[in-house]
Amino acid sequence: MNLDNLKEELRKEIEKKRAILNRMIVEEEDKKKILKYSEELDELIGKYYKLELDTK
Q1: Virtual CA dihedral for 20, 35, 43, 41, nearest 10 degrees?
Q2: For residues 52 and 32, what is the distance between their CA atoms, to the nearest angstrom?
Q3: Is the pTM of this model over 0.90?
Q4: Which contacts qualify for 28-35: CB closer than 8 Å, 24 or more apart?
Q5: Shortest CA distance to 40 belongs to which of 25, 18, 12, 11?
Q6: Which of the four pLDDT bands, split at 50, 70 and 90, describes residue 1?
Q7: pLDDT confidence of 3, banded at 50, 70, 90?
Q8: Considering only CA atoms, which of 52, 50, 47, 55 is closest in space to residue 13?
Q9: Domains contained in the chain, number
Q10: Rounded to an integer, what distance in angstroms lies between the CA atom of residue 9 and that of residue 3?
C-alpha cells in the first residue's frame, strides 16, 4: 500500500470514529467508554499527522 492510500484509509477511519464518538456523546454513553474511544481517535489522528510530516 502506498503512502497516499494509507493516508486516505486513516482519514476514512478517523471520520468514522469521529462520527461514532459524537453519537456516543449525544447518547450520553458511559464516560469511560467515551474517553477510551476518544483516546483511540487521538492515536489515529497522531498517526495521520506523523505520515504528513514524514512525507514533507
Answers
A1: 10
A2: 30
A3: no
A4: none
A5: 18
A6: low
A7: confident
A8: 47
A9: 1
A10: 10
Host domain of residue 40: 3-54
What gap in Å lies between CA 16 and CA 12, rounded to an integer?
Answer: 6
Q: Look-up: residue for cell 486513516?
A: 10
**Structure-block grid coordinates of residue 23:** 453519537
Give CA–CA dist 21/33, Å, rounded: 10
- Within a 13 Å sphere around the CA of 49, how many CA atoms are in the beta-carbon half? 6
At 48 the pLDDT is 92
Residue range 13-36, pLDDT digits in tens: 999 999 999 999 999 999 999 999
Dist. CA 34–CA 16, nearest whole Å: 15
